[in-house]
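task queued by scheduler; priority normal; single chain, no ligands, no partner chains; default sampling; output format set to C-alpha cells
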Amino acid sequence: MIKISTFLLLSFFSFCCSANTDTVAVKKHLKNITKTASYRNPENIAQLNAIAHYIKTDFLKYSDKVSYQEYKVEGKTYKNVICSFGTENKQRIIVGAHYDVCGNQEGADDNASGIVGLLEIARQLKGKKLNKRIDLVAFTLEEPPYFRTEQMGSYVHAKSLKDTKVDVLGMISLEMIGYFSDKENSQNYPVAVMSKMYGNKGDYITLVTTAEKGKFVEDFSQHFKQAKAIKTEEFNAPRSLPGIDFSDHLNYWNFGYSAMMITDTSFYRNKNYHKKSDTMETLDIRRMAK
C-alpha cells in the first residue's frame, strides 16, 4: 500500500491541476446554485432542499454511493448530501462545504464556490482507485441563526462519525474559494502585523490550521503548497483569532479530528460577504478553478 503522503499527492490532489478543471462546468454550477427563484436559506426550505437535490443529482453522475443525511430542526427536515468514493476502505477523509446562505442573497463566494469545488472533486474522482475512503459532504445550516449550534449540518455529520466510531483520517472544509484581487490593500487581517508576513494583496488561497493540526493536515498542507497550482499561504494560528474557526471544520475540531479550512479569507478580503453583492460575477473563475 502506498504511503499516506503519496496517496494524498497522487490520488486526491488531481483537483488542484487547473488543466483538469472544467471552468465551463464551474460557471454552470455557480449559475444554477445562485440564480434561483428564491434564496437558499432556512426561511425558504423548498429552495434549500431543491439545491440539495441538485447537488445529489450531480454527485450521482460520478458515484453510486450518494445519500441524504436528514435531520429535523423545529419540525422541518434538513439535509446533508454525502457522496462516497473508495467505500471498500476503512479509513476515511471528509471534504465538506455548506450550501446554505445567510439571509436573502445569492451567496456565490459564500459558499456556492465551495460546493462547486466539491462537485468538481467528485467529477475528477470518478473511477479512481483509492486506498482511503473519501466522503464529499454538502452541509446545510452552517449560517446564522444556526452557526455554532448542534443544528449545523456539519455538527450532525461529525457527531455521527464519532458515535459510530468511524476511523477518520482528517477533514477539509472548503469555505469561500472564489474571490481574488491583485489590487494593493485588497487584503486585510485580524492582526495588522500579518500584512508584513503575507502582503496586502488578496491574490492567494489560504490553508487555515492550528498548532494542533495533526498529521493529516500537516501532510495535506505540505503537498498542496508543493503542487504550486496557485499561490498559497498557510495561516497557523490559535482558534481564538477571529475567523480561524468560522466554518464547518470547527465541529470536527470539537470532536477531536484533524481538520482544516481552505479559504480566500472571507470577509478579510471579500467585502461582498453576507451582502446582496456576493454574486458569481465578482468571482475569479480562473483562480477558483486552480
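post-processing summary
- DSSP finds nine helices and eight strands in the chain.
- The chain has a mean pLDDT of 93.
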